Amino acid sequence: MTSATPSSLMQHRDKYSGKGQSRHAWYAMNLVPGKRRFGVYRFLPVFFCIGGVMEWVMINVRIGRETFYDVYRRKKSEREYQQKIEDGLIVLTKPVAK
User: What does the mean pLDDT of the chain come to?
Assistant: First the structure.
């Protein structure tokens, strides 16, 4: 009789868990044509299109009043302004009361 350590039990469980899900994923992947000629690179156009859609959404879809790029440009401008203040290129002065 051998004693099973917790780590060996975890390896056994990880190795054999989700067999059905793996089979479904493998079946779906094999439906995509070009396996012999392109190998795993046959999925590249799909991910290219997903990236294009994500880019379009970040540019054109407004959440509230801003898009992703509006927020990006504003934050970049704030960081540049803060860096100029730290470098001494911009001196903040208090307004003189009249």
Answer: 82
Helix ranges, the chain (H): 6-16, 19-30, 35-38, 44-60, 68-87
Count the neighbouring beta carbons within 10 Å of the beta carbon of residue 71: 13
Any domain includes 39: yes
How many residues are present in the chain?
A: 98
Residue 70 is part of which domain span?
25-87
Which pLDDT does position 17 carry in this prediction?
A: 54
Report yes or no on 14 lying in a domain: no
pLDDT at 12: 47
Q: How far is CA 23 from CA 19, 20, 36, 38, 66, in A?
A: 6, 5, 20, 22, 43
Residue 47 has pLDDT above 70, yes or no: yes
Vertex 10: Cα angle to 8 and 15 (nearest 5) = 95
The sign of the dihedral angle between the CA atoms of 65, 66, 70, 74 is positive
